[in-house]
Amino acid sequence: MTADRPLPYGDPAHLAAHQFLVEEAALLDAADYAGWLGLLCEDIRYVMPVRVTTARGAGSGTLAGMGHFDEDMYALRKRVQRLATDHAWTEDPPSRTRHFVTNVRTFPAAVGELRVQSALLLFRSRGDTREADLLSAGRTDLLRETADGLKLARREITVDESVLRTQNLAVFL
Amino acid sequence: MLDLAAIVSQVRRGMIPAHIYADPAIFALERDRLFARSWVFLAHESEIPAPGDYVVRRVLADSFIVARDESGVVRVMFNMCLHRGMQVCRAEMGNASHFRCPYHAWTYRNDGRLAGLPFHEEAYGGEDGFARRDQSLLPAPSMATRNGLIFISLDPDAPPLAEYLGDFAFYLDFYTRQSPAGVELRGPQRWRIKANWKIGAENFSGDSYHTPHTHASVVDIGLFREPRASKRKEGALYTAGPGSGTTYKLPPAGNGQSDFAGQLRYVGYPDAMIPAMAAAWSDRQRALVAGSGFMVSAATLFPNLSFVHNWPQIDAAGTVVPFVSLRQWQPVSERETEVLSWFAVDAAAPEDFKRDSYKAYLMCFGSSGMFEQDDVENWVSITDMAAGTMARRLNLNSRMGLTADGKPLKPPLAAAFAGPGLAYQGFGEYGQRHWLAQWSDHLEREPESRSVRDLGAAW
Fold first, then answer.
1. Looking at residue A151, what is its pLDDT?
2. How much is the ipTM here?
């Protein structure tokens, strides 16, 4: 179902997908997590495999059966609910984050769905004495057309480090 | 100038000079006196199931290849080429019959033996000039396994592992031997935190006191029933051999009967797993669960391997599913630690249990876990605060559970706790003091002088 070449950048489907990702990033940087959940399909799968250093030609460079995230809607809702409590210390005071989304490529998928690849650079700053963290990742998303517009049905995050340089993933990518 | 004797004497009375959590001089002593000597966990046999499988793991700066050789024997080899010192294997994992150094192509079998050396005849005059035959990558000075857990010690005269583990082996089985099939590990997730490595090790060794507050949010959202303070202080804290840990008090069994299966069901184990747990554990281990009614939770095996067993609700229907995680606090510097966090599950468990238990793990612990997130925030902050001048003027109080004259606030549980070692019900820093006492023992002892291997010199 997947074309080899991305849609032209002027294609309305590509423009809609690109806008979706930029608007999503704006919600995350504003810590509007409830709003972010509204962009997700009820059957969302949100995964972030663990990367490993392997010899060239020796496998995928990801760890079998282990991710940093492997979430369904229940798990994501719990994470968002937690951040909204008065006791989520790791984000109180909150991080200052900036999700830089670029290299967006859109591919036609099944009817009513788009496969979208993007590059993400997440800048995360905490407190006033610590070095800031950077997380670099590629993302492959499945966007679905719904009555409420495009929604995220699946996201696979391919992080570019085998050892993350951030204290936790109390953030979404 | 470090006054080690003064530091250790403070620590031994339960007062901790705060700077030890961010002090480069202390870190150097830990490297030279503790990690150069202690048994340290590297990997689990299930991570390298087939001949040729390997993972590369470290003890501080020392890289080791942990490989299963062609005959199925697990080997641990120092990952440094004998010739010019390159890291022989630069992948983290894989499968290989040989490791070839990229510098001059010296090649080693996966049991460590030197198999190939280009131009042996022309460059060295053959065996006469360089005896290739008996060379191999340096093996770990000591290596042993327990329940498939592979430990090494940089001390060639380390006590036998079984002797070292002592009474902690009793508790280790709850995490790593839930059936005769043993456990399988997945992972590790790896990430770096700007925290001193000791803080995590101490936390898991016995800090039930932090749970109600640090982890209040996971109770707020209905993920976990147990951390409420009233519940947490009913648990027992034990010290045993080189380890210590926390437990939860299980609900009383019906009709005064001890009910092994009922207690395991309460924490979410399916009926399909319970007979194997009964078969794998001794009468005394079963009695801790059934008669005493305690279920293991967090633990630390000195120095830097910790365990956790929890039972969150993994779906909207409130299904309770337990998980086990092993985690290692790998020191990077006095202010930075690499965390390695594995998901562990009984190898013989039903596939749907493995799937659900994995979900439970991811929600609670590891790089994204909702418990772990708040822990790490605290530990980074402690390390920050410990680095300054004022921290050198403050001894932190680690005397919880002791009276002014150093006696336990209440007597240890005797018959009410079936496990070995010493156990107390309620809050107290028994495990942390036990961990710090071992830390003190190592730091006080002068490092041994070690023999140096000479490579292929003929005179």
1. 98
2. 0.96
